[in-house]
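Minutes, project huddle
Topic: does the predicted pose make sense with 2-acetamido-2-deoxy-beta-D-glucopyranose bound?
PN asked that the exact inputs be recorded in the minutes so nobody has to dig through chat later. Recorded below.
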Amino acid sequence: MKSLSILLSLISFVVATPLSSSSQEQLFFNADGATYPGFNLDLTALRLVEMEGQAPVWVTELEKIKLKAEGINFFDITEAQDLSSSARVSLKTNYVFHAPNATERVKPILKTLSMEGPKENLKKFSSFRTRYYRSDTGKESQAWLLSKISQITAEHASKSLRRLIALTEFTHPWGQNTIIVRINGSSTDDDGVIIIGAHQDSTNMWPFLPAPGADDDGSGSVSILEAYRGLIAADFHPVRTVEFHWYSAEEGGLLGSQAVAKDYRSRSVNVIAMSQFDMTAWVKRGTREEVGIITDFTDPSLTKFNMDIVDTYLDIPYVLTKCGYACSDHASWRKAGYPSVFTIESTFENSNKHIHSANDRIDISDEFSFPHMLEFSKLAVAFAVELGGWSKTD
Ligand SMILES: *[C@@H]1O[C@H](CO)[C@@H](O)[C@H](O)[C@H]1NC(C)=O
Ligand SMILES: *[C@@H]1O[C@H](CO)[C@@H](O)[C@H](O)[C@H]1NC(C)=O
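Predicted holo structure (tokens), as shared on screen:
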């Protein structure tokens, strides 16, 4: 194990410094051919990646890891090459997002949201050595999340609501599955689906190193889980189907969300709106607490709707910001032709700089804020009720 630890220290040196010089390149290539217990990752495997404005290129897993370490975002389209090619799904309606009007339903739920569950859940979720999508601990963290969702459902959903809820694993070939929770809508003539998403996997810049992923995206994962808890505890029976997704392999080039979006499109599922929550905890010292609303590569009218929701229901204002091409799972839905949006903890510039390192921890700084996360749970609750509607409970 001595050579391994030397290698790891070399690599941590590499990832802590800019990745340009040829000696550093060499260090990365030293890793080639090594095997890592607990990981199912072949660094020589070929992957097809799509970067902004370029034709897709074949690269090795190792080269893909290096691209990410250099801060370049991409879709890994190896298994989803036709996601955008057959154009838009034929949506039955061109949905117009209304001004928020369900305050009587939403506001009482917001009062019931709590920081206790998110604290406990995130402590546990960030305690796995890594939630890397090709690691054994990434499978374990997924199993834990599924059992937690199942427990919350059993504890908080009424009998009639439980009959409408389905928990499923969307299986992927790499091991860690995407989790989908569906609350069936009551409508018989409106097949619209509302999706609230976050990604469950984490990564270190060098994927074999520890990756607690407290903010990225443990925070979004537990923020939407608390929204789900609050909704079902309030006996939310939607008119339209509302789904919560915890994607696998966002860090591998949006692999999980592309697979799900591809499946939905191939079945012509009528997704009306998808909202991604990726990093919801960090309030940089000396900055105003705000919700970052991403305006690039998102749907403009759904983004406007999100601004209205923040104004109507949150205790903090929004700020418009950008995060670039393929920066989180909303991008997969957009590529599949569905309206999607993305909110983040702050402006992109003020977001947590500890991500993709062993320091993405709850306890790294008092800038990591559970009250801030709670605002995002509110946003998710409002999004679900405003767009999902509320049918009379039976
Ligand atoms: C809100 O407005 C939409 C669009 O006009 C409408 O379909 C919905 O029933 C309204 N909801 C409430 C609670 O008034
Ligand atoms: C939800 O609705 C779908 C489509 O109608 C149906 O196939 C499924 O069985 C329903 N699930 C639950 C849990 O009611």
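Observations noted during the meeting:
- The longest helix spans residues 136-156.
- The pocket of 2-acetamido-2-deoxy-beta-D-glucopyranose (ligand 1) is lined by residues 98, 101-102 (CB under 6 Å).
No decisions taken; revisit at the next huddle.
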